[in-house]
Write a structure and sequence with these properties.
The complex is a heterodimer of chains A (259) and B (298). Chain A has 259 residues and is mainly α. Chain A is 76% helix and 0% strand. With 298 residues, chain B is an all-alpha fold. Helices cover 70% and strands 0% of the residues of chain B. The chains are: A mainly alpha (259), B mainly alpha (298).
């Protein structure tokens, strides 16, 4: 036995914990027809109109979340670094609060607090609540990403330069700051995308036709299709995380999404 | 806030108008957080001390003593503790193997990348993956049956241990992601210094390595605990999520849909209980992180 016996053992143990369920799911998803391996389960899923509808619903929700989150976080992080550095721990604290308030408690509180208001009485209102909660969930990732990005550029000089050329605040934000934190913003955006696309709890409890609740419902009527969906969903998460690492901000992928 | 701190430190107010308006820049952020997080949460906390006529009462809190609620809290706490320990142990050893364990470098980046994905792969699809693996018809279940080992009915994916195995799948990668940088923060000099003083590998870990890493390990395990405690979707998919749910998060979720039938105060108290436990957890994590920052460069 070499010196590396134990590390190899732990590695193989961990790797099999990670990979066996993925392999089994993939294998299972190919067994939709007796006696042959087939992608029929995938075809069934992709042909299902409800899959297309819920997927595009979640896609739109994810994009709306990313846009709103960026519009709130970038000016805030910029302003805090430029003019209110003492407020930074406070803002950071508030962005981390979603870890203290689990998704199910958040959606419960929102539903109770805004019951019998337009926010819960209409389809549009519920969607606003959905996007609002996702934006809150995205804050930890977005703020960290943008804050780090801002620290790597000299915002004081950039701001003064822009001001001396006669730019107002909107111009500085849109044409100087946004383009400069674009890459960090993207890494926050991809993690938000991965979270929103698979999110179940908030969407289901607000009765939204999202991808998460669709997956949940499918399991009650189908056997092989759910495993195909699990593989598709894993691929989606993998693509989002790969995109983050590809744009070179790998450390942003750290913390976790809603369970 | 800014005005207050400035006044306290005695610095002159800036700006030509004599009063600083710069705090206005963070109003959108705080308004958003207030509307979608703080106000709803505080109002739930407040309401859990009010009865339906809005009089002050402890009745809602006392109702948490009902056997099925206590059982759900105990179940959730046990599940979180077991998966934090299991995931922490496996994840810690894996992190050790790929960092200072001396395995080939590419394995480290492969494990780190995969952990980034797996820690975000949870909820409904993760439940599907384990049903396809260890469910009654699962691939591993069938394979074990073919070699003469019958998992069912002794084991069930929908039992406590089944749920634990599934949870550990998202606990391991979180442990790896946080512990790997901490392990790499261990300085080579410490090892060399203890070796030159005649310490064995065992002694190094017993008297130097573990004591330095302990706050970090405990802190991360506390985080894993909270991670499991707040989990809802995975358990919902596996257990069906009726009002008879065994996990606290499922009980709370069920309170939303059955609003008219049940006592609204009870739902508020259930949520309050979760917030308190999560608050303590995150507080403990922060404290332990601060302690570990003393030694580690991570």
């Amino acid at each position: 036995m070499g010196k590396r016996f134990w590390p190899w053992l732990w590695f193989l143990l961990g790797a099999s914990y990670f990979l066996v369920p993925l392999y089994a799911t993939f294998d299972f998803s190919l067994r939709a027809r007796r006696g042959e391996l087939t992608f029929a389960a995938y075809a069934n899923v992709l042909r299902d109109i409800k899959f297309v509808e819920s997927f595009s619903f979640s896609l739109q929700t994810a994009l709306a979340t990313i846009v709103v989150s960026a519009l709130v976080i970038v000016p805030t992080a910029y302003w805090v670094q430029l003019r209110l550095p003492r407020l930074r721990p406070v803002v950071e604290f508030f962005t981390l609060l979603p870890f203290v308030v689990p998704a199910v408690v958040l959606v419960f509180s929102l539903a109770r607090t805004y019951s019998r208001t337009p926010l819960t009485d209409s389809r549009e209102g519920l969607w606003v609540l959905l996007v609002g909660s996702y934006v809150v969930l995205s804050f930890p990732y977005m703020y960290r990403a943008v804050d780090t990005g801002l620290r790597s550029i000299n915002i004081h000089d950039l701001t003064e330069a822009a001001q001396s050329l006669g730019a107002g605040w909107p111009t500085i934000l849109m044409r100087v700051i946004f383009p400069n934190v674009y890459v960090s913003l993207l890494s926050g955006a991809f993690i938000t995308f991965a979270i929103v696309m698979g999110e179940f709890t908030i969407a289901a409890l607000l009765a939204q036709p999202a991808f998460g609740p669709y997956m949940n419902l499918l399991a009650s009527s189908k056997v092989y299709e759910p495993s195909a969906l699990a593989i598709i969903s894993f691929g989606l998460t993998w693509a989002a995380i790969a995109a983050i690492q590809w744009i070179g901000q790998g450390t942003q992928a750290r913390l976790v999404g809603p369970r | 806030m800014a005005l207050l701190t400035r006044a306290k430190t005695g610095q002159p107010f800036s700006g030509r108008r004599g009063v600083s308006w710069r705090w206005l820049g963070v109003v959108p952020f705080f308004a958003f957080v207030a509307a979608f997080l703080i106000w709803p949460t505080l109002s739930i906390i407040g309401q859990s001390f009010l009865d339906q006529q809005r009089n002050l009462t402890l009745q809602n809190i006392l109702q948490l003593g009902q056997p099925f609620i206590v059982a759900a809290y105990v179940y959730s706490l046990q599940l979180s503790a077991v998966t934090a320990l299991g995931g922490g142990l496996l994840g810690g050893l894996l992190a050790y193997a790929v960092t200072i364990g001396g395995l080939p470098r590419p394995l480290r980046s492969a494990v780190m990348s995969f952990s980034g994905v797996a820690s975000n792969f949870a909820g409904v699809p993760l439940a599907f993956a384990f049903i396809a693996t260890l469910g009654q018809l699962g691939i591993v279940t069938q394979w074990l049956r073919s070699v003469g080992v019958n998992l069912y009915p002794a084991f069930s994916l929908y039992s406590f241990w089944g749920l634990s195995i599934v949870y550990i799948y998202f606990q391991i990668p979180l442990m790896v992601l946080i512990m790997a940088p901490a392990l790499e923060g261990m300085r080579r000099e410490w090892r060399e210094a203890s070796e030159s003083l005649g310490a064995s590998t065992r002694q190094f870990w017993r008297y130097v390595g573990l004591p330095i890493l302990l706050p970090s390990i405990l802190g991360t395990m506390v985080l894993l605990f909270g991670n499991a405690f707040g989990a809802h979707a995975t358990a919902f998919q596996l257990t069906g999520g009726g009002s008879q749910g065994n996990v606290v998060t499922i009980l709370i979720g069920a309170q939303i849909s059955s609003d008219a039938l049940s006592n609204p105060g009870l739902g508020n108290a259930l949520a309050l209980g979760m917030i308190v436990i999560m608050g303590v957890t995150i507080g403990l994590y922060t404290w332990l992180q601060r302690r570990s920052a003393r030694w580690l460069r991570s």
